[in-house]
Amino acid sequence: MSEVTKVVTIGEILVEIMASESGEGFRQPVQLLGPFPSGAPAIFIDQVAKLGHPCGIIGCVGDDDFGWVNLDRLRRDGVDVGAVEVMAGQTTGSAFVRYRNDGARDFVYNIKNSASGRIRLTKEALALLVECGHLHVSGASLFSDEMAGTVFRAIDVVKGNGGTVSFDPNVRKEVMADPKVVTALRALLRRCDIFLPSGEELTLLTEAGDPAAAVEELLASGPTTVVVKRGLEGASYFGADGRIDWAAYPVEEVDPTGAGDCFDATFVTCRLQGRGVEESLSYASASGARAVSVRGPMEGTSDMSQLDALRAGLPTPGSGRRLAKWLGRATGMTALAGITSVCSAHPIALEASMVEAASRGLPVLVEATCNQVNHQGGYTGLTPAAFRDFVYDIAEKVSFPRERILLGGDHLGPNPWRDLPVEEAMREAELMVRAYVEAGFEKIHLDTSMGCRNEEDYVPPEVTAERAAGLAVVAEGAAAREGTTLRYVIGTEVPAPGGAREEISELTPTTPEALRATLAAHQRAFAKANVEAAYKQVIAVVAQPGVEFDDQKVVVYRPEAATDLSASLATFPGLVFEAHSTDYQPNDALAQLVRDGFGVLKVGPALTFALRQALYGLDRIAAELDGTWFEHSLRAEMERQMLADPRHWQSHYRGDADRQRWLRHFSLSDRVRYYWRYPGPEAAVGRLMGFFGEMDIPGPLLDEFLPALSALVVHGEVAPRARQLLLEAVRHVLRGYTAACLRGPGLR
Ligand code: ATP
Ligand code: MG
Questions:
Q1: CA distances (Å), 372 to each of 344, 381, 583, in order?
Q2: Per-residue pLDDT tens digits for 275-331
Q3: Cα–Cα dist 121/158, whole Å
Q4: Is residue 364 assigned to a domain?
């Protein structure tokens, strides 16, 4: 590499000091974080250095800590700082920044009146320029006539070397009110070779107001290359060889500052090193993506191997981070790989879940569904607050700590009111969401995919996202009043809640493209509705791994059919997949699901199925122990009840009378779970439990009627008493989930 390929920039070197909480400006005391090395030219050149390319910066700092923090960093990363003048009696520039909730930023700058306002072409600066093959200028550096003059003199030297110039306008519209600045920027535009505007900056300095015409005008007036940066929307290259678009790499945005500068630096460096346009765009986009995923303006500069990892789609640190953070609040455990979501309102199922969680020091996540619990009561007659109290009462009984209980609302949307016109249905959905949040539910699954009156069964993705954003607005409002932080889950699977009604055979896993579209639509809709902060609290996206069950069959997880899906998790940083209907999966399938990124496993019917099985077994044992028991038979009572009120099973169970009869009690769909709260069955369970009391149930009868539990009794793992056996039946199912969630690499 010859000497004159050195990349140089000229301009402000600052510290950035940021408010740690978002909000408006600096008119009241706020907590601050910093100083962070900053300044667009400084970030640019640090990024060039990280790529291992020779480079230097011309600038000026005070002989103060703010100056040294920058010089030390730049030097350490490989930047030649010999042309940065350390001026005694001056103060290093600074920028105080505070993010507003909508993502915009408020600044208090000290640049023009700081050491940066005194940049001059010293002997050292001129020596650096002599070695320079490429000069980069940020438009924001033309903050005074003197600075503009200095920059143009530097350009003359570099052009004299046969070098090239890149220019990132980095200007806000307000600056354009100053005609001198506009003149300088226009002159710079004509002298540059690579023009790197972001978004609307493309047309800021052109006669043409339309982007396509602007590109044409630009390419005719000086630059040979134009690259437009559009944040999340990616970037577009324009040159003599045409247009090339490059999508952004998906990452979790933590701090947007510096993305443009890192992009510029990486694009320019790659081109200077002879890489093609596509490869350069790819590295530059990865560089911008890494910049936004790290807090602090210069903290997210990258070396080549970090960019290669991102380009290769390798898992970025932060996969599952949001779920991990939430769970970490409820438990000290960081090694969790997932969480079981208990979707049941049966008190014994809930008690068993808490006992199981307590035995491993885990939190318990309990979820209620829109039809089951809502502001009008739902089919359980419970409002969210009443459901919460019901769960809390059980926790108190078994001394399960309340702070380890996480509550979730599932499929929150217009589903229960889909017979109404959409406006009315969404109004109810809003009231429901508010009630959930006010009752302390933290995990909010927004599902607005179903159509309402006069709509298709499922509405288009954009409409779904827009409706979800509307509900997020309501949820965030309520959360702000309650002082809570919500975690969202988005996305749905077709078919809708309630499980498959038809027989199922095979299932296609969700495609990564569909998930990407869902996420992108929600991101746009949330931004439009001013709830970007809520979008950043999305912890999971619902995906179909290819598991389901119907009346009598279970479709078991086939990892080989879901490899695209699980590999794509790396491109959804911070998130995990949420799997619904994982009931009846074998334990090794559950473990594999977690390993493949399904960090939330929902289970419901399988728990009450196990409970029903234990109850019916006890019922038959009672009949053996007491010749007159048939009068009290739970099974007979349940049959009477289900026939008297068929609404929870009739539309689900097809076939002749015999088939319907056995399905009523033994179907995997477990519609019988809806009947435990009816007075008849409830009394029958009471009689059964009263009959056994503290009795030790004879082993041979257990072996005959409850063989799985009998084995545990033989091993001394559970006492042969009715109540313990019921809890154990549910725990037996849950243990497979616990094992799956405790295994594997853990959430990152
Ligand atoms: P700056 O605020 O530093 O001036 P800019 O507006 O000049 O930024 P952007 O368009 O925001 O530049 O970002 C430059 C590039 O970085 C984008 O084209 C994109 O490839 C990448 N990038 C920016 N934001 C994100 C993001 N949230 N996720 C992924 N990539 C991003
Ligand atoms: Mg920019």
A1: 10, 8, 19
A2: 999 999 999 999 999 999 888 899 999 999 889 878 876 544 345 778 877 887 665
A3: 13
A4: no
Residue 397 lies in a domain: no
How many A from CA of 35 to the centre of ligand 2? 21
User: Which domain-ending residue is among 286, 310, 334?
Assistant: 310
Interatomic CA distance for residues 409 and 122, integer angstroms: 65
The verdict on the CB of residue 232 being under 6 Å from ligand 1 is: yes
- The backbone torsions φ and ψ at residue 62, rounded to the nearest 5 degrees and listed phi first, read -80, 165
CATH number of the domain encompassing residue 169: 3.40.1190.20
Residue at 486 is within a domain: no
Question: Which positions ≥6 away from 549 have C-beta within 8 Å?
Answer: 499, 500, 504, 555, 581, 583, 584, 605, 668, 669
Q: Which two tokens stand for residue 400?
A: 């399960």
CB 589 within 8 A of CB 557: yes
**Measured distance CA(447)–CA(410) in Å, rounded:** 8
Kindly report the three-state secondary structure assignment for every residue of 121-161. CCHHHHHHHHCEEEEEEEHHHCCCHHHHHHHHHHHHHHHHC
Instruction: Write down how long the chain is.
Output: 748
Q: How many domains does the chain have?
A: 2
Residue closest via CA to ligand 1's atom 10 equals: 231
C-alpha closest to that of 431 among 452, 451, 404, 412: 412
Contacts of 402 (CB under 8 A, 6+ apart): 392, 395, 396
H or E element, residue 466:
helix 461-482
Specify whether the CB–CB gap between 367 and 602 falls below 8 A. yes
Cα of 460 vs centre of ligand 1, distance in Å, is 29
Site to probe by mutation for ligand 1, drawn from 229, 249, 287 as the one with most ligand atoms within 8 Å of Cβ, is 229
Closest Cα to atom 17, ligand 1: which residue?
231
CATH number, position 660: 1.10.400.20
> Is residue 230 within 6 Å of ligand 1 at its C-beta?
yes
Last residue within a domain, chosen from 256, 281, 310: 310
From the CA of 536, the nearest ligand is 1
Query: Is 139 among the domain residues?
Result: yes
Structural tokens at position 121: 């072409």
Burial of residue 103 (number of CB atoms within 10 Å: 0-12, 13-18, 19+): middle
pTM exceeding the 0.70 threshold for the entire prediction: no
Q: What does the pLDDT average to over 47-52?
A: 97
Does ligand 1 have an atom closer than 6 angstroms to the CB of 282? no
Residue 747 has pLDDT above 80, yes or no: no
For ligand 1, atom 1, the nearest C-alpha belongs to 260
Taking 50 as the threshold, does the pLDDT of residue 628 lie above it? yes
User: Which residues constitute the domain of residue 226?
Assistant: 6-310
Whole-number Å distance, alpha carbon 29 to ligand 2 midpoint, is 29
Residue 251 in contact with ligand 1 by CB distance below 6 A: yes
Residue having the nearest C-alpha atom to atom 21 of ligand 1 = 288
Please give the DSSP secondary-structure letter assigned to residue 191: H
